[in-house]
Please model this.
Amino acid sequence: MLSVTCRRMRLRASAAIVCAALAIIVAGCGGGSKKHSSTTGSSAKTTAASTPSAKTSTSSSSGGAGQTASSLGFPRVATRNTTRVPGASAVADAAGVALAVYPSAAPGTHPTVVTVAPTDDWEAALASSVLMAPPIHAPVLLSGSDSMPAATTDALKLLAPTGSGDLSGAQVVLVGDVPKPPGLRAATIGGSDPYSAAAEIDRFATAADGGRASPDVVVASSSDPAYAMPAAGWAAESGDPLLFVTPETIPKPTIQALQAHQKPRIYVVGPPSVVSASVLKQLGRYGTVKRIFGDDPASNSVAFTIYRDPPCTKYGQACAPVPGSFGWATRGPGHGYTLLNASQPLTAAASAALSGSGDYGPQLVVDNGSTLSKPVLNYFLNYAAPGYYAQQGPTAAVYDHAWIIGDERVLSVAAQAEVDAVLQAIPTTTSK
Model:
């Protein structure tokens, strides 16, 4: 494979070309249902704003379904190796992701059940991601308490959940104080505070899985959501619940949830500044405890992405998850990724379904929207950058793909171009 130095040189040149193409595309994206073609070779392309699900779903109202899917943030702008879900809010992003995972355009493509999580309780929203894991497979939509947003209402109509046998036929799972959509059978999950809500979500998921409590639990701090965000995607993939503590204490609902897991392996995500050493010691009463952390949100998400317990002993693809292990362990090319902005924690819940399906990729967090955070860029250069032996041709390569959640304010076109360039498979002259 190419050295990191060589990758950096190729990245600078490629990023400039892709960025120019993307800038032209984004400038022309004003019309909601228009199609756009690439203006610069194959470096960038756009997909149709309207989707098959919007056009054919029998549950949508006549005439405007295609435009409705576009307004929900369904992926429109793409490059070779990236797809953007360009919602202007986490609510729209959640709707777009749900439709990407469940196009709902033909029999068998509808979800059985959909989760509606609260926008005013980010802890409960992130914890709800575990409902995407088997056996429930419920993508997360978002709503406030007063009324359900139009994007969420329209998405539910298009998704037309069929009802889950594991949940007594429920079509929606309502978490916290969110409105009940008319005409759909609902299961509810309460909780008077974020800690109780997360514990109730854990109890609900365990019951749906026949009472089999997960042997692993992720614990995050309620004081800083940016450090908890990567746990949402892992919960959706693994079924490991997400519970919460304060920087200095373990709330009673969290203690009770941990006790129900009967001495689980407890993985604390975040540095001592958000979960103190004292809390780690207290958690040791309820199971074995290990900390996964970085000093800032971007570094923290990278640490979570490469972590595995038991530890990895080999570099590259050989370091892959094994039965009974914990963690993504993505230390080589051939994976999917989801990029989130640290200032928008709800997007972690909104996009969790992408980690629990399709490319099954970890969530990486950027610190600001203008540039690709250095820890994330270095991760891609060190681990994700794919290559192939020139004599074998590109069909022998493995490939990476990144989902970008949110519009250009969340992650700029320039940063998207940079991601696209560094994930592009390129030949190496090294002989096999």
Summary: The chain has one domain: 4-428. Residues 4-428 form one domain.
